[in-house]
Write a structure and sequence with these properties.
Elements: E1 18-20, E2 23-25, H1 31-44, E3 53-54, H2 56-63, H3 67-80, E4 83-86, E5 90-93, H4 101-122, H5 125-144, H6 147-165, H7 168-192, H8 195-210, H9 214-239
Antiparallel strand pairs: 1-2, 3-5, 4-5
């Protein structure tokens, strides 16, 4: 999520990284995963605005990645609804469906509550330490009012949450929803959001999971979605 200040570039989750195509990536990433991460971030941050045409060839040249990984990344984005693949027309960035945002949040709330509860129940000592580190990153982002720190922590948090919860059904369900709500958030958060508040709410979820407190994790997740719903409604009302 973003707060005050100018919009910034793709996520950074820390740790030792190499560079390919002008962007960082973790050594554990496949090229398809890296392509997905970079292209998705370009779409979320409006470097590729709704209606933009994406060429496999030009994107391959831009990122320094082969066309096959680019194609795999675009197929994943199409599954999430972020792009549309049109026969003989190419790949087009989808429009943001403003009317569906509250419906998405309704579903997201229940899935994320399941994920948070399971993660709290299943987190081992190494994973708990990782969630504590992320909580500290969210708190640092709030203190420094640095949206870039938040974006990096948020992406890592989401990935760790899904991996720790060990529920493929919830993981597959949350992907498309998260993709669409991220785009809505980035477009409007600078005007209507509260970076410090959203950082604090994320930190609470992370700390509850780190404490193996399933009840607190589910409650913290609910509180976070209460804020997301409030912010979304406020944004939609202002746009009417």
């Amino acid at each position: 999520m973003q707060g005050a200040g100018e919009r910034r570039n793709p996520l950074r989750s820390g740790g030792k990284r190499a560079r390919i195509g002008g962007d960082d990536f973790t050594p554990a990433e496949t090229q398809a995963q890296m392509a997905y991460r970079i292209i998705e971030e370009m779409i979320v941050t409006m470097r590729l605005a709704p209606g933009s045409l994406i060429s496999e060839k030009s994107m391959s040249t831009l990122l320094g990645i082969g066309r096959t990984p680019i194609r795999e990344a675009l197929q994943r984005l199409a599954f999430e609804g972020t792009v549309r693949i049109l026969p003989r027309a190419g790949v087009i960035v989808s429009e943001i469906d403003m009317a569906d945002q509250l419906k998405l949040i309704e579903v997201r709330r229940e899935i994320e509550k399941i994920l948070a509860g399971r993660a709290a129940r299943l987190a081992d000592s190494k994973t708990r330490a990782a969630f504590l580190r992320l909580a500290a990153e969210f708190e640092r982002a709030a203190q420094e009012r640095d949206e870039k720190i938040f974006i990096a922590a948020d992406r890592e948090f989401n990935g760790l949450l899904i991996a720790t919860a060990q529920n493929n059904y919830a993981a597959h369900a949350i992907g498309p929803i998260d993709a669409q709500t991220r785009r809505f958030w980035y477009l409007h958060f600078e005007r209507f959001g509260d970076l410090q508040r959203v950082c604090d709410l994320h930190a609470r979820v992370a700390r509850a999971i780190a404490a193996n407190d399933e009840s607190a994790a589910r409650k913290a997740s609910d509180d976070l979605l209460d804020y997301v719903e409030w912010y979304t409604q406020r944004t939609l009302d202002a746009m009417r």
